[in-house]
Design brief:
- With 140 residues, the chain is an alpha+beta fold.
- It is 36% helix and 16% strand.
- The chain has four helices and four strands.
- α1 (3-17) crosses α2 (32-44) and α3 (87-95) packs antiparallel against α4 (110-122).
- The longest helix is centred in the first third of the chain and has 15 residues, at 3-17.
- The N and C termini lie far apart (34 Å).
- 21% of the residues are buried.
Length: 140
Amino acid sequence: MTRLKIVKKIELLIKKYKPKIIYTHYHGDLNIDHQILSKSVITATRPIQDSSVEAIYAFEVLSSSDYTFGINKNFQPNHFECIDKFVKIKINALKKYSGEMRDDPHSRSINNVINLSKLRGAQMFKSFAEAFVILKSYSK
């Protein structure tokens, strides 16, 4: 699928669902598909009249955002969301994603997902958090 087709598909989804916030992969991830999707989201959300989109947040993916080793710009979050009430749900969901999870000490192990959530929580004086890079933010 060409990048133009991906952009057009995203545009159709935005038109259909009218999201206020879009979450996408970080554009500096090691995975090429993450980079393509992130850049396609940015293209699909260029400012147009009557757009529903107010914000685009890029999330980090363990063993992709953290494995770039300086090849791409490192993930540097500037927005945090407390997940104290949801961390157990997150862990249970990740256990169903077993084909992608790894054993310790891999960064994409359940233990290290929890560790990162704790670190991100400590950065906002909470127990657990998710971190994001604000790619775009519009006031309405």
